[in-house]
Amino acid sequence: MKMMKKTLGAFAFIAALCFSLTTSAQFGGGPPQGGGGGMRPDFEGRTPEPPDPEKMVEQEVKWMKKKLKLNPDQVDRVTDISTKYALAQTDFMQKQMRSRARNTSEDGRPSEKDMQKNREIMDKLMKDKDREMSEVLTAAQYEKYLKRREDMRKSSQQYQQSRGGGFDGPPGGGGFSRGGGSF
After folding, report:
1. How many distinct structural domains can be found in the chain?
2. Which of 10, 11, 34, 131 gets the highest tally of CB atoms within 10 A of its CB?
């Protein structure tokens, strides 16, 4: 049970990190309204790194094997799907970080238009991944998979809110609401 909580916590952190890299709530300059903070565009001198796609895939497939009781063929197929989309997400986040300097407003935040475009791209990736997973998993397995995704999304939102910002953000600024989610 402790291992499951640690794994779930790691997934929540990874999901929060994935989302936070594409949100303005994390690219703040000075103290924003509501006291949320947000990371400085230069991340205090450190170069931000997207999550390791191999670790993301390993954790996701491990959970799916155990909880969804995948057969060997399903393990191979979900590993391929997870790898494809983890690499796509990582590639997207790296491109976004490299282009951030060109696409930010005076306060160091990405423009609303760019943020919306980024959300749409990430949402499309997740929908495409879900569609491919639905072709591999049984109906019962897919239902559990989607429930876990939703639980991860909620956990990620709670994590962000506990840090003073995030998806729904504090009153007066800081975040945005979104559907979708990620492992």
Report:
1. 1
2. 11
